[in-house]
Specification:
By secondary structure, the protein is mainly alpha-helical. The protein is 48% helix and 7% strand. A hairpin with an 8-residue loop joins strand 1 and strand 2.
């Protein structure tokens, strides 16, 4: 994941994307729109659940797994090999 700067922004988490987004956003708008609606809902649900208790290890793990799934979906949509997602 990328570091947050002092303006509370970070870069899009899509592989190779340098677009600056507000902290808390996973992807820039272009990459977000590549995801199916069902994955939008899954990411948003996991994020909101994590916000309810940021110290809950299970919620953190679920959020990370869903974020990784979304990043991998964007990489696949862009024709990148699976191993670049890690």
């Amino acid at each position: 994941m990328t570091a947050v700067d002092r303006n509370n922004t970070q870069t899009c988490h899509a592989v190779g994307c340098d677009v600056v987004v507000p902290y808390g956003r996973l992807l820039c708008l272009r990459h977000w729109r590549m995801l199916p609606a069902s994955l939008h809902s899954k990411v948003n649900r996991a994020y909101r659940r994590w916000l309810g208790d940021k110290l809950d290890h299970d919620r953190i793990e679920v959020l990370r797994a869903v974020q990784k799934e979304a990043i991998a979906a964007v990489a696949r949509a862009e024709g990148l090999p699976a191993e670049v997602v890690g």
